[in-house]
Amino acid sequence: MDAYLLDIEQTSDDPDSIRTKRDLVFLLIDLFFAGSETTTNTLTHLFYYMAMNPDIQKKVQAEIDEVLPKGTLPTLDDRPSMPYTDAVIHEILRITSLVPLGVMHCANEDTQLSGYSIPKGTIITSAFSHIHFDSRHWEQAEKFMPERWLDQEGKFNGKRDGFVPFGIGRRSCLGETLARMELFIFSTAVFQSLNIAPPPGTALDLAHDDNQPFFHNAKTQDVYVTVR
Ligand code: HEM
Fold it and tell me: What InterPro entries does the database record attribute to this sequence (predicted)?
């Protein structure tokens, strides 16, 4: 923000300057929206899936207990020692496909792609959620299976074709590194201390909220939280 404000000041006499306070406000709204709705909803999905899959939740907690001494909060350095937790997070990113159509882009030159001709100026959107359920990449894609991210020795393998939750290329998610960090630190800290379950006698709806066509947001519902 400081750099942006300085630039506005320094280019105030330049009629071609594209920086204005109004533009800065929109950029900040973009960052707050893209940065908070996304991680919040992914974590909410993760909590619902853990609530509905108590065996998987127990495995995550067992891994956390094994790696982190009681009372020690997780750091990113712990991630390589927690392959199962990492696998759960990746499977949540795949199965929920939070941003199913990515962000719209515009072809800035005439382009040929896989036999299709895309004229300059065409608006293009991606079908990330479709890719995440494509049987060429994923067996039993409808199933929540964190193990698909682990090799036979239980080692985590995150490099998979057909996995694009943050988009791809030059305009892929600006916040990917931050989001991955937040997802790991927050979810391990939560499951280190808490159990999450559906309220007694109920089940959670894992489907996304259909009212939001551009996001696969989690539905608002109660969960039952107990201290471990
Ligand atoms: C789980 C969390 C997140 C997911 C799943 C996610 C996903 C995405 C996707 C799919 C795109 C579009 C990429 C494309 O069209 O190729 C995108 C763009 C973007 N994301 Fe994220 N995102 C997340 C978190 C964040 C965070 C934490 C921030 C910022 C702090 C952020 C900032 C942005 C911005 C600024 C863009 C536009 C980039 C551009 O147009 O160059 N995102 N994100």
Answer: Cyt_P450, Cyt_P450_CS, Cyt_P450_E_grp-I, Cyt_P450_sf, Cytochrome_P450_fam2
What CATH number does the domain containing 207 carry?
1.10.630.10
User: Would 6 be classed as within a structural domain?
Assistant: no
Answer left, alpha or beta for residue 205, where phi above 0 means left and psi between -120 and 50 means alpha. Answer: beta
User: Distance between CA atoms of 220 and 216, rounded to whole angstroms?
Assistant: 12
Number of domains in the chain: 1
Nearest atom (ligand 1) to Cα of 171: 41
Say yes or no: CB of residue 41 within 6 Å of ligand 1: no
Does ligand 1 lie within 6 Å of residue 92's CB atom? no
Residue 15 belongs to some domain of the structure:
no
Substitution candidate for ligand 1 out of 30, 130, 173 with most atoms within 8 A of CB: 173
Domain assignment present for 12: no
In this predicted model, what pLDDT tens digit does every residue of 18-37 receive, in sequence order? 888 999 999 999 888 889 99
Tell whether ligand 1 has an atom less than 6 A from the beta carbon of residue 28: no
What's the pLDDT at 228?
93
Segment 170-175 long-range contacts (CB within 8 Å, at least 24 positions apart): 171/103, 171/105, 173/34, 174/34, 175/34, 175/35, 175/38
